[in-house]
Write a structure and sequence with these properties.
Layout (H helix, E strand, L loop, with lengths): L11 H21 L7 H28 L1 E3 L2 H24 L4 H26 L5 E3 L5 H20 L2 H26 L2 E5 L7 E6 L2 E6 L6 H14 L3 E2 L4 E2 L3 E4 L2 E6 L14 E4 L7 H8 L3 E4 L5 H14 L2 E4 H4 L2 E4 L1
Parallel strand pairs: 5-6, 5-7, 9-10, 10-11, 11-12
Antiparallel strand pairs: 1-2, 3-4, 3-13, 4-5, 8-9
Helix pairs in contact: 1-2, 2-3, 2-5, 3-4, 5-6
Length: 338
């Protein structure tokens, strides 16, 4: 498959599937061998638990790297998922085999559909339990590789029984801890502002150390949008919002920056020469060249929610008049050290 399309290596699902299978092959025998239950049912349950632990050990670094969370009830969910999948997959293949016989096909399809529906309901129920996940976790690519190197060293120890592998794992653990401490110091001293590139959002964060003062268009912003588009970046900064996400005012002065937010109904009547960032949220009633002459901003930032024609017009005017223009929709988030 990789020969036909090497880009599958970059697919998150492929990576998780690959490391899960590798973990089950390499780690499951070691975990399962730790205990030998005498009762048949208990032995099967322990085998299922060992598979779950092996798969979770192999996949949790990728889960944290991509999704920034860890499932606390993975054993409970896997006790449900693994038996269900062992039924759904064979039944699915059987359903395909009987595609030529409508009566049998429909009957098998009903069984598969019912299994999948109830599986989804049970997993949703588990995800809604208290403390079901540890969220806002963040690791870098280097830290991801170090964690996998630690896991590999410990797996090698179980196979070879060489204490040298444990020492290597401990050394790598020290490197990982040093990296985390270094990142913690950087986060404590960070000062920056961010304007996000997300559809339907106008959010501006001012970061000082581990604190964030946030401004947003509260009427058009939902908590789900914030969690999906913005929370991962805040987690990467290891910072939390300390205010109640104030409404985006016309003038924002934070971290030594003067930000002017322009909407359609606002008209500038006098010169404002100290503007650092001119944020265009909607079509303005004033001419672009007049606004630029009155504000003389260091940079013009265009909202991702602007119409294509408005963005294009502003960019052409800024280029013609020599102003820096950042289009959030096409150029990505605007991040500035302060």
């Amino acid at each position: 498959m990789l020969v036909l399309n090497p880009r599958f290596m970059l697919d998150v699902g492929f990576q998780l599937s690959y490391v899960a299978v590798a973990g089950i092959i390499l780690i499951h025998p070691q975990v399962y061998g730790l205990w030998k239950p005498k009762w048949f049912v208990l032995d099967k349950l322990w085998s299922l638990t060992a598979v779950s632990i092996a798969a979770q050990v192999a996949t949790f670094p990728l889960g944290i790297y991509y999704f920034h969370q860890f499932p606390n009830y993975f054993l409970l969910s896997n006790w449900i998922v693994i038996p269900a999948v062992s039924v759904i997959l064979p039944m699915g293949m059987l359903m395909i085999s009987f595609a030529w016989l409508p009566e049998v096909y429909v009957f098998i399809e009903l069984i598969v559909y019912t299994c999948i529906r109830w599986l989804g309901k049970l997993i949703s129920w588990i995800s809604e339990l208290p403390m079901s996940t540890v969220s806002q976790l963040e690791i870098s690519m280097i830290e991801l590789l170090v964690i996998y190197a630690i896991i590999s060293s410990l797996v090698a120890f179980f196979f070879t029984r060489r204490f040298k592998m444990v020492l290597i794992a401990l050394g790598l653990g020290c490197i990982l801890q040093t990296s985390r401490l270094s990142e913690s110091v950087r986060n404590t001293n960070q000062n920056l502002m961010t304007m996000y590139s997300a559809p339907g959002l106008d959010v501006m964060d001012f970061v000082r150390g581990r604190s964030i003062v946030s401004y947003m268009e509260s009427e058009s912003t939902s908590e789900k949008q914030i969690q999906y588009h913005i929370s991962p970046f805040r987690s990467a900064l290891n910072a939390t919002v300390v205010n109640d996400s104030s409404s985006l005012q016309t003038v924002c002065i934070q971290n030594g920056l003067f930000v002017l937010n322009l909407k359609d109904s606002l008209e500038i009547l006098s010169e404002m020469k100290a503007v650092d960032i001119l944020h265009i949220q909607a079509r303005t009633i004033q001419r672009v060249d007049q606004i630029l002459a009155l504000t003389e901003p260091e940079v013009v930032v265009l909202s991702p929610n602007l119409e294509w024609k408005v963005r294009s017009y502003w960019k052409s005017k800024c280029n013609k008049l020599g102003y820096v223009c950042h289009d959030l929709k096409n150029d990505g988030a605007y991040v500035r050290e302060t």
